[in-house]
Amino acid sequence: MRIKLAFAGAALLFAAFVAFGQAAGQSSDVNFPTPLSSNKLTGTIRARDIGDNRLTTHYFVFNGTQGDLFVNVVSSNLDADIDVFSADGLIPLAKMIVASDAQANETGRLIYLRRPEKLILRIQGRTPNDLPASYQVSFGGSFVAITGEETQKAPVVESGVKGDVAVNSVGTILPQVKETPAPSKDVSTAEKKIEIAKAKEPRTDAIPRAEAESPKKADASDTKATKPGKRNERKRPKVVVTENIEPKKEETAEAEKKKPAKRKKTTAQAKKRPDSSKEETPPAVDPLANVKLVILFKNGEKVEIGMPDLLRFTVDKGQLIVIRKTGSIDRYSMLEVAKVTIE
To answer: What sections of the chain are H helices per DSSP?
Structure first.
């Protein structure tokens, strides 16, 4: 009987602890801390990848009234710093250092508050091995839970990995599971045959309405006009005899005359073409074609340059400069020149 009562009491205590001190959400952003709705909180810190030395940080917010505030911390397999700040300016009020040298560590602090204010609890640490670390924080005294207040949630970053290669926080390539495409539904052979038959059928939509309706109207008129006994008989067209109309001779004569007239025009134009070529004016003759610039040197040499090839010639600083139209420039010393003439 005593064993049953003890077991029932333990079950009630466990249920009360779960209802009273459930693990709250864990926020890692100081701008969006997790509000505490109970004076007890529990949390875990998972092990990071091998080679990742970063610390895990959790932020919680609660209120405090004037008086003494008691903070008690029980941790397991955790190396961390636990701090209490004033939310207005993050002024430090208490600090606790927790080590993982023992199976379970317990520590606490007493904080005196002169006025009611909002406080922030920070838990920053890591596990020394591959096992997760756990902590439990209890408050007493002037602790006030936050209830009924709307709090902003921190933005959530998608944890999905996109791309051909997935890596962890250290850079190690992780095996990526390839998504298998969903099997397509098999179409029965009967449905395929029906679709092919529909594709081969001529479309009546492309035929204009007037053409499509005209034979129907004609059939309706024929059925009304003919009697049921004489449906196969066809009406013969009436033959009308008329006199043979001869074409007018004047018109044929005029048509015959016009044809040779056109031919004569073409021959006349062909004859006039050589005459137009003879009447073309001959190109003008350059009057300076036979004029030359003659330079006679003292040693008996002579240079002749045609005027059509000459652009200009000048004397500058004791030199005779001759510029040709081709762009070449000849320079001769006046001490060697005996005479310059134009012939």
So the answer is: 2-20, 189-200, 209-225, 249-278
